[in-house]
Amino acid sequence: MSIKILLDEDEIPRKWYNLAADLPTPMQPPLGPDGKPISPDALAAVFPMNLIEQEMSTERWIDIPEEVLEILYRWRPTPLRRARYLEKALGTPARIYYKDEGVSPPGSHKPNTAVAQAWYNKAFGIERITTETGAGQWGSALSFACALLGLKCKVYMVRISYDQKPFRKLMMQTWGGECVASPSTQTRAGREILEKDPDTPGSLGIAISEAIEDAVSDESGKTRYSLGSVLNHVLLHQTIIGLEAKKQLEKINENKVDVVIGCAGGGSNFAGLAFPFVLDKINGADIDIIPVEPTSCPTMTRAPFAYDHGDTAKMTPLLPMFSLGHGFVPPPIHAGGLRYHGMAPLVSQAIVEGLLRPEAMGQVKCYESALLWARTEGYIPAPETSHAIAAVIDEAVKAREEGKEKVILFNWSGHGLMDLMGYEAYMDGRLKDYALPEEELMKSIASLEGLPKPPIRKTGRW
Ligand SMILES: Cc1ncc(COP(=O)(O)O)c(C=O)c1O
Questions:
Q1: Is 264 a pocket residue for ligand 1 (Cβ < 6 Å)?
Q2: What atom in ligand 1 is closest to the CA of residue 265?
Q3: CATH code for 4-9+63-107+232-448?
Q4: What residues are paired with 180 via a beta bridge?
């Protein structure tokens, strides 16, 4: 019995998988301020054209450039591991496998797209990239990628995480990135928010507005913005995770996966593992595919499917997605990367279609699960990842109760070695669960009023 299933470098997937080619109902387009579908040119000040083309592509398979693969070889293919010790502790007949994305230099799945995005920017002649970061994982991944490709990187980091996670900022600086707390006084969007609410903990929506403003106001034309999740091309770059996992499962003759699980903030690590399995489900396979979010930021489980902006200052086009409203400032829970008001349009459409079964978890249960994991498997997960682990444990216990030998696969999206303050708060008994109250939810989604409404399109097959 293998507990580490490895691939050689020459077995790495050489193409990314694009779910937009196979969704039974086509994606609805992003809209501009006039409510009409935007043209690629409308995004040209924000992203390089080669990534805009990828964003809009409906090609099923897209070649991974050789130079991107050469950087990914530093840590890819990542191990597929079997959580044998957790299985034993739970007394479950389920076989639990996980993709270990924590082995990348910054410690998460984020560099899979950071490297690709930095490479495409460089190929387009861009010299500097701006971005936002929540927990700091994305900012450190992009700083790392920019260091390897010789680009400058500026990161707007959500204030609450900037204060809670000083080591992430130091990682960014070590890779040559510049990191400021958001909202900052360096952009008009940041100054306006600080004037209204000087003590705001910040949000990803605000930090995105600042990073976009910074990019589009560079008159040299050599700066672009980069997003670490949500958009189609970001999810595309992450599918290398699920494609590797399929090869690894084949190697050990594990031919049927019953449950696929990932935590979901903007949706990228979940999609990266799950989309190749969503294709199997579209083609008839019986798989339960579960994205997991926090109860404090219940985008998939309680928010409407709407057209909304990706940022607070309404600089992005309107995206068709589940959204808590662009003004949503999430409570300062410890899983910083799961505090985003929206959900990737591709993930959202797959939910509308009934292909996915979203769940929400409270943070106390997540830390309890993370501790059980650390004390059985040994590795300390990121607080975001612990949401997936909590759902895995629920499914493994269900398998025990039903006496079923299920195969459960999940994405171990990152390690938590920079996130120990959250563990300390949990172990000291200071962490509380927080479910978003209904009146807060209603207040927040009121910002969607007046925006166009996407029709709910589904085949009814699932
Ligand atoms: C370790 C880890 N997992 C998950 C996430 C959530 O992001 P996404 O839903 O895009 O994978 C983050 C985001 O910062 C993260 O750092």
A1: yes
A2: 9
A3: 3.40.50.1100
A4: 156
Give yes or no for a contact between 382 and 413, defined as CB atoms under 8 angstroms apart: yes
| CA–centroid distance, residue 265 to ligand 1 (Å) | 6
One DSSP character per residue, 153-198 reads EEEEEEHHHHHH-HHHHHHHHHTT-EEEEES-SSSHHHHHHHHH-T
Report the alpha-carbon distance of residue 195 to residue 437 in Å, rounded: 27
Domain ranges of the chain: 4-9+63-107+232-448
- pLDDT tens, per residue, the chain with 462 residues: 789 999 999 999 999 999 999 999 999 999 998 999 999 999 999 999 999 999 999 999 999 999 999 999 999 999 999 999 999 999 999 999 999 999 999 999 999 999 999 999 999 999 999 999 988 999 999 999 999 999 999 999 999 889 888 899 999 999 999 999 999 999 999 999 999 999 999 988 899 999 999 999 999 999 999 999 999 999 999 999 999 999 999 999 999 999 999 999 999 999 999 999 999 999 999 999 999 999 999 999 999 999 999 988 898 999 999 999 998 888 877 777 898 899 999 999 999 999 999 999 999 999 999 999 999 999 999 999 999 999 999 999 999 999 999 999 999 999 999 999 999 999 999 999 999 999 999 999 999 999 999 999 999 999
Q: Which atom of ligand 1 is nearest to the CA of 135?
A: 14
167 alpha carbon to ligand 1 midpoint, in Å?
17
Ligand 1 proximity of 136 Cβ (cutoff 6 Å) = no
What is the chain's Cα-based Rg? Answer: 20
Ligand 1: residue whose CA is nearest its atom 5: 337
Measure 460 CA to ligand 1 centroid, in angstroms: 30
Ligand 1 atom nearest to CA at 336: 14
Does the Cβ of 137 fall within 6 Å of ligand 1? yes
